[in-house]
Amino acid sequence: MIKKCLFPVAGYGTRFLPATKSMPKEMLPVVNKPLVQYGVEEALAAGLNEICLVTGRGKRAIHDFFDTSYELEHQIAGTDKEQYLSSIKNVIAQAKFATTRQSEIKGLGDAILTGELLVGNEPFGVILADDLCVADDQGVMAQLVEIYRRTKCSVIAIQEVDDADISKFGVVDGTEDEPGLYTVTDMVEKPESADAPSNLAIIGRYVLTPYIFEILRHTPPGKNSEVQLTDALLTMARTSKVLAWKFKGQRFDCGSVDGYVEATNYVYENIYLKNKNP
Ligand code: UTP
Questions:
Q1: Which of 54, 128, 189 has most ligand 1 atoms within 8 Å of its beta carbon, as the pocket-test mutant?
Q2: Cα-based distances in Å from 215 to 52, 178, 194, 208, 221
Q3: 35-45 and 86-94 helices, crossing angle to 10°
Q4: What is the Cα–Cα distance from 156 to 243, expressed in whole angstroms?
Q5: What confidence tens digit (pLDDT) does each residue in 135-151 have?
Q6: Distance (Å, rounded) from C-alpha 174 to C-alpha 238?
Q7: How far is CA 28 from CA 105, 137, 145, 228, in A?
Q8: Residue 276 pLDDT class (50, 70, 90 cuts)
Q9: 4-276 in CATH: which number?
């Protein structure tokens, strides 16, 4: 059983400056909910209710967001404004939160290794909250958890991307074992399109076995002098097995301004207006 979901939320979000100068990127709202809430809701929908946050300096708003706001709740108690807090109160009621801090921003791989303290020796999900995923039926994390249950292998979410965009992603090569499910044979972090092994790009959803921590401990800094999760996953693919799942749904890169605006328009038209759900 997978119970834990790790959220690396320590990054500086430089592509969103100046908004992120004193506010965490993960607190940017898409319509009326911050990105991190969408991520935690996706984890809960997959049955992962132990939320492990790897935070850093300047991320206090995330801690406060997942806590009770006594004064605010008292102020609006008994009014029709109470409904606006119902979704976050549901999240707080269902999830347990634990946090640790990444002392230096040394890359996603380092952030995941920092989370070992919270995760321990068990398989776990990873959600990068700035990748907003929406799916009609089963959420993307739930899709990965289902594959893990069948295979007991680490599994990463991938999507096909255009050649022009490939250099923004980690890219996998692999053999397709069943429709949409690949055994990974190679991986490259942010390749030039000529060097990309395929057009299958890694997005911010993973289920990992704890073996990843052992590998990360011995993974030297790679691209941009950061410890790259992709490098560690390649070692894992070569020494055991890593699967890649072409997920069903849509993903928006909310770490970039264009993707964020696209997500906002999509969520407003397709979710917010339809559900009228605050
Ligand atoms: P990104 O590279 O997209 O986030 O990392 P960033 O560094 O905050 O953004 P830019 O590029 O400066 O605009 C993906 C995720 O990994 C986390 C980030 O918080 C983000 O959720 N991360 C990244 C860490 O927690 N620690 C790191 O050292 C690096």
A1: 128
A2: 20, 28, 29, 12, 13
A3: 50
A4: 6
A5: 988 999 999 999 999 99
A6: 12
A7: 20, 25, 27, 25
A8: low
A9: 3.90.550.10
Rg from Cα positions in the chain: 18
Q: What is the pLDDT of residues 194-215, one digit of tens each?
A: 989 999 999 999 999 999 999 9
The response to whether residue 108 sits with its C-beta less than 6 Å from ligand 1 reads: yes
Distance 57 CA to ligand 1 centre (A): 13
What is the average pLDDT value for the chain, to the nearest integer?
A: 95
Question: Which residue type sits at 196?
Answer: A
CB 214 within 8 A of CB 116: no
DSSP string, 17-36: TTTTSSS-GGG-EETTEEHH
Q: In which element (H, E) is residue 101 found?
A: strand 96-101
